[in-house]
Fold 3-oxoacyl-(Acyl-carrier-protein) reductase.
Amino acid sequence: MINQQDGQKGGVDQTQNFPEQVPRQVQEQQPGIEEQMDPQPVYIKEGYQGSDKLKGKVALISGGDSGIGRAVAVHFAREGADVALIYLNEHADADKTVALVEAEGRRALKLPGDVRDAAFCQQAVERTVKELGGLNVLVNNAAVQYPQDSLTDIDDEQLHKTFETNIYGYFYLARAALPHLQEGDTIINTTSVTTYRGSPTLVDYASTKGAILGMTRSLAGQLAEKGIRVNGVAPGPIWTPLIPATFPAEKVAEFGQETPMKRPGQPAEVATCFVFLASDDSSYITGQVLHPNGGEVVGG
């Protein structure tokens, strides 16, 4: 088992004793740096035992260096998958995630670049297939968000960056991946609780997350006869680097308090949803969304 502190075999799980309220903190640039967070997110739960659910598979994860992406990478590796990680420029976070994957006895591939670039997405898929021997699971997870109190404050630059990162990148990667996917393979898209209830200060972000839901359901129907399943995960407030890189310090300190569980969720508490959807355990599930959100009841 991976030790949260040093990446060695051992076991320290902070999920149960994680503070209900996190300290005030901010980061200046998205998508944020995990090693600067206080406290560190929990990316794997104590006692999680892999059972070869993904043995021999290859996964490609966007936003795979930290947060939910890191947790998914480590869980996938513990289940027997090799993992390719797309990330923007957070090299230290990516290096740690690679070390964690390799500590599980699996191969890891770093793919720095911008998912807004269709050519890069094509190259990322091609390198994954060439260097890891194939592609079985695509996890679309990269995202940005920029709060604005008024729609009139969302300028064209922000609008384009949010849509190009959060939904165009999903299309680019799925389109590039499809020729390599076969019966039994999967695509998993990260959407959000904001898809279902909206967010007054994240109108553009919530709109992209709604688009991801539409993409997931539509692509699932298109690919069902090929035996390729497409599903989504809609996290609620999860303690990832994007949070201190998005909100002012006072909002960060209150993060997650509005949920019925009165705390932010941990990446480890989301990653198991991805394991389930990537594995044969969910063989009769496609076009659906799982909701690790701390108890908020949403439709769909």
